[in-house]
Structure formats: structure tokens, C-alpha cells
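protien #1 (seq + structre)
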Amino acid sequence: MTREEILLQKKATALNAIRKLYHPLTKHGYTYYEGEGSRMEQISFDVERIIKQLEKELLEVARKSGVRICGPNCLGLINAFESVYATFSQYADGDTHSGPVGFVSHSGAFGTAIAALARRREIGLGYFVNTGNEIDLGFSEIMQEILLDPRIKVVAGYLEGIKDGFALKKLAKSAIEHNKPLVLTKVGRLGAGALAAASHTGSLAVEDGLFDAVARQYGIIRARNEEQMLDILEVMLYTSPPAGNRLGIITQSGGAAVMMADRAEELGLVMPRLTPESE
């Protein structure tokens, strides 16, 4: 089946109506489904078992019918290249001109905010995908498909945790092979944040030092927050990735140069001394 032949269905539904929804979908041969399951995994602990059972049933039906699921507990996706707006995100209410950045987010609301900031900076998002609870399609699997699109130059993502470390490493290797920078903002770095991430999308906390080590080993560019992510994206869109770790600084301020030199050394960058002639 080609990409053009894929049928798509999006629904926002109350929790107790999910069973009535997904069986008719499979009868009509839908091959993709996204769900926003009335704050799935975000309501009280007393119904957590029921939610998990509903997700299990939904996935079983999908598996038998060849349906792939993005979500539940998500805002869906935008493919700006083909003008596909399968989303509930407010980002779609404004201009969503296509561009060379593919963006995938665990969080819907925060992902929408990042997309809106990107628009303000005139950074075009070719793809915007919110993955939610990921009972079927995961962050890395979706990002991998986006990365393979020749119209995409840079891929970026917002993570609340890691559900499949092997898939993330495979994605990072693929990004290097295709010479496309992979920029990630991972939150839940400390105890309170990790607990908040688990209650939001069910993401599993990963010790932050471990994630940093993996990012360095596999060439993942880690952004500490959304503003730094967008700064990095702007750089990557207009320049080629650096060939090495040597750095030169040109500035009007000596104080700023000292601050930047300190930070560069912290990051393992080398600032060669000027020759006597240049000095």
C-alpha cells in the first residue's frame, strides 16, 4: 500500500465510548487511527486499570486489522507538505507553511507552544506530530519516517522519557547516516519532573546522566529548553554541521569573549591560540 492510499481517521471521544469507536474503524479498512482518549492516563488512579485495559483492547483490534495508532492522549499530526491536518492542535489555526524541519513531541500542549514559537521565528515545520501515550507507534519510529523524507533537513523532538532505548539509538545512527542533525529536548531530568512526566504520558524516567552519555555517543544534540532548541534549529538550517571541535570567537566585548570561552571549554571545544602575527 502506498502512502497516497493510506486512509486516516481522527476522533476525540469520551472514555466510555472508545469500544464503540474502534471496531467500526477496522470494518471500514482504516489503516491509521489517532485518539485523544479523554485525558487517558491523566485521570484518577482509581480508573488507571480500566484505562490500561481499554488501551490493550484497542491495540489488539488494531493489530488484527492492520491499523496503526498514533496516541491515544494526543493532538494528532500535521503534514504541511501535503496539507494534511489530522490534529486538534491550535497550531493549525494559523499559518503552517511547510519547511525543512520535522518536529515530534510527547506533549500536545507544549508541542503546540514550541511549534507556535517556531512559526514566530519563521522556522517552517514540514511535519508536526504529537505521540501521546504511544501504545503502538513510538516517538523514534515516527521520527525515523520523517527523517527519511528528502524535504527534511533537520529533525527535532520534545521527550518526557525513553520507552525504547534501542529505537532511539537506531534513530540517532540513521540521522548521522543521512547527515541530518537530531535535536532533542528531554525533560524529567530531576525527581519531581520525572514523576510529572510519568503521570502525563506514562513516560519512563531515564537517569539524566545516562541520557547525556547516550546523546554524546550517538551524536544527538541536546537542547536544555525550547528556546535553545529553536536557536539550534536556526543555526542548523543555515549552516552545515561543524566538521570538528575547534572554535573561533569574534565579539565586540572582551567580557562576553571570556564567558563564551569558559563555556566552550566546558563543552569540550578547543579555542586555538592566534599566531603572533594575528595577535
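ok now protien #2
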Amino acid sequence: MAEYYAQRASAGLLISEGASISDEAIGWNQTPGIFTVAQSEAWKQVTDAVHRKNSKIFLQLWHCGRASHSTFHANGTLPVAPSALQLKGDSIHTPAGKQTYEVPRALETAEIPRVVEDFRRAGELAKNAGFDGVELHGANGYLIQQFLNTAANQRTDDWGGSVENRGRFLRETLAAVRAVWPEDRPLTARVGVIEFDGRDEETLSQAIGLLHQRGHGRVVEAGSHDELLDRDDGAHLGQRPQLRGPFLRDARARRDGFEVQQRRFARLGELEQRLHAFGA
């Protein structure tokens, strides 16, 4: 794996594949983790190889939440999620073959600090492994986005209901990781509009605003999903107006030498922005 990343180091900044922050967080076959000292030590081979190429690398911290299956977990425990809502109409490839998504177990209110602590510990292990930054995966229908999106979050406590409450888990995980992550190394969050059971443009826009206003990880990655690219009005689920305003200008001012990454989509005939701003 070190050779794989080193071969791509000429990009200047690499963001790793998702690394599970706990056994409970796993939801894909043969994916790496960052929840043991042994895993942290093994990642040093990757960071050393990338640094020898004079490049930078971030580790993406990942919890699949309900997009998982009991066969991934010790003792066959059910996946956890904000609410006990099963993913619809799809299946998952597991160690036991293709399976239907299960009804997840809703996290108890008292359990949420334990999951936040798993993110904090993963951030600490990533720091020890020599990563230049970390990114919290809050897109693509995984746990952080599940808290943000009403398609997966029907809680009635402080982590559900209003956008402010649904954004609480993201803010708490950012704060927890920042507590152990050096101020001179970037802490980032990736947020997106697509959830497995639908999309939520309003929540994405407001989540970006919350991150910006509160100063919790002024790093957001926002990009359009292929299924949205047929739109020609330039809005793309409210992301463009948000990113073209003060937030984008503020982000550019804080990128600390790392370049804004760009992707070209032929259907649009223009550049989409994949934005990274650093701070917190």
C-alpha cells in the first residue's frame, strides 16, 4: 500500500481511502483501520513513502454507521445509526457474501460520547502515524452524514430534529479531534448532499454555514455527484451559491499553501470545485 500511495505522490496532496475508526465502524471488505497502535505503526510505512516524494497526505476518518452489516463486527453486533432505519433497496458485500442491509441499532444518547471518543482516538493515532492532516468523512451516506440527514435521523434528543441539533455530532467530532491534533496541521471535514436514501440540499447548505460560523474545522469538501450533473442552472443543490460567496473566499485565504483541487466534468463543460480550507 505504501508503494501505491507513493506512486501518486506527484499530486502534491493525497487524501487516503477511508480508515475505520473502530471495529463497529467497518462496513467494507478489506479496508484499513486506525483504531489500534499496530495499525498506526503500519500506516507509518505509507506516510514515510509519501514524504520521501516531498508530498503531503491526509488520513480520512470513517464510520459507516448503518451502511454496514453484522458480519463485519465482533460477536455479530448490529450496525449502529442515529435511528433504527434500514437502508432501502440495496445490498451490501460482506465477508459472508452479498447481504441485505439490516435494520441498524439506534445509538443510545449515552453512547454518542463513546463514538466521538473513537474519532478522537483515531485522530491521535493518525497524528502518531505521521499524517499531515485528517479529514472526517461526513458524506456518501456514512455515519456523520446520517446524523445530518433526516432520511436517517429521526432522533428526538439533542442530536435530532433541527439542523442545529443534527449538526451537533459533526461539531463534536471536529472538536474532539482538534483537541489532540496539532494546530499547525489541518483538520478537515468532508460533507456532501447524497445519502443512500435520498439527498438533502438544505441540510448541506446549512451544515456548511454552521461549520463556517462556529469555526469548527473551517475545512469543507463539496462536490457534485454524477447524477446531479445533468442540471445546467449552475446551482447544483445549493452548493455553488454557498461556495461562491464569503465562505469560498475565506476558504481560499486559509488553504495554507495547499492547492484547491479541481475536477472537470465533460457534461458540464466547466470545472467543479473540490474545496479544502484549513483551520479550526
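The two ends are 30 Å apart (CA to CA).
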